[in-house]
Amino acid sequence: MSLKKRLVFSAIVTVAFFVLLEACLALFTPIKPFSPFRLSSVDHKSGSRTYTYIPNAKAPAVIMPKPQGVYRIFCFGGSAAKGWPFHGAGFPEFLQKLLDYNSQGIVEVFNLGADGCSSTMVVEVFKDSLLLDPDMCIIYSGNDELYSLNIFNRKKWPRLNRGVWWATRHLRLVQLPGYFLKTIIVHGGALLGVKNIHKFEKMNNIRLNPPEKKQFKLNLYIGNIDEIVRTARKNGVEVIVCGTGNNIRDWLPVKSVHTPGLSKEECLEIEKEMARGRNALDQGRFTEARSILLPQALRDPYYAKLSFFLGRAELQMGNIESATRYLEQAITYDDYHALHHISSNQNRILGEYCRKQNVLFLDVDMFLRGLDTQGLPGFDMFLDGCHQTVEVNYIIAKRICDVIFDYGLLKPRSDPLFIPSFKTLRPLLNLSKIEEARAYTDQALLLGFLYQHPEYLDPVFGFLEKAEELGYPVVVTRSYQGYIRVLQGRMDDASNIFSLAREHNVAGFATAIKHLLGEFVRYDGTRLDIKPAMLHEMPDLYMATLRNKPPKPPEPRDCPYHLLWDQDLSRFVSSSD
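Above: the chain sequence. Below: its structure as tokens.
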């Protein structure tokens, strides 16, 4: 047999082997072609099929074929669109209720947001959703571009891109590794997003600064939005694109880098001066803080935290325009490799694209700034850098509802029932008060004890107050609030708060104190003894706890703030709670 024939025979045998293996896997493995929509039930009499959206368990089921006279709206995005951590109370759920009261006909709104969903993933989820016959899609994406799986250039290699995506959906040989390595594949997206930037730098022999890195990611983001818009128009689907809001006033930059060209000694000197200015800011000496920070910000404009603290000083002095400029600069030069904290400039670029393409654009960031008294949203509207409070989810939904009616996408009732307020709609959502309270306490844990920033302790105090109002056990919230005041050195306030917690539940308070402040507070059943002499050790202990915190909830004996993870609150609850 000639060499040519042997090669042809080997190729045929190899292809036959993989075809046979694929057929066996298709018969004997439970893996189905990948799709975020799962067929949950079939009505054989009517022929209707019911689909559920896997990433959001609280999203309503989609029935196909679509009933006559129904208008379907699909909302896409990451965790901010989903409504994290208030699952069941995102802006899509509020939008559904608002349209129920005020629109003609039947409208169905589906929340297709998913935690960590980048615009690249939104593209594919949107394409899948076309089989469910949407009439409108609302895009609220851009905060999760860290998880951007832009492996292939869509415009340069469209066939290769489609082929790879087809293989991931239909071939068991491709799906099987992903089934067993799900965590690696999902979280590998973050690494791929970063490697794209590193590869670009290496190929062009350059070093990108933080704004240039964000522009690199922004270009990919705009490309994904463009693909959604073009696909939607081909299929007769209306599109509304939203520029996401963010916490510009209170959220610290995640990663700060010094301006290139500065020596190590100069960087250390700048950081030392920043610490001095930050201390003056904390003590209310705003003019002094500004005089210390401003020369250093001019000397090192890339250092994001420096710009942030200078912006805070300007804000306290009432210089709103200067404060906005420096806080925006802090976002721009934050070297975090994601568009997690979107600046107004990035939303402006998105808005320019939408205007050129004649796409409806809603700049949520500027809209929320207009509602804030200082024009700078903070922890009064956001739980962290980008996740909205429940009240803000309602505000966004109401604004989207107004846009839908103003542009004639839906017809309002000639005699609308009424415009329901937040307090009217809140009880109608699929989110209990205790779930909302637990979400606030979980966020208090993340802000107060996971991030290494004492600036977040006052917002944590406020979140715990909200949790208490919603019915969370008083002994737990007050014990934590007392703990926060101890960390801040406000011992008299801490003692008063601890006393109030003890009045509610003596036994529960003793348990809480034992786990929270065992080394710094003594409680013998009648007397509460706070040890101010050990206060100087608190910051070191606090920082050590943060550095050594394991990634999973530790055992109670190892973690002084385990209560916020505790699923059984009965031992802290008494009749007085």
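Residues 264-332 form a domain with the Serine Threonine Protein Phosphatase 5, Tetratricopeptide repeat fold (CATH 1.25.40.10).
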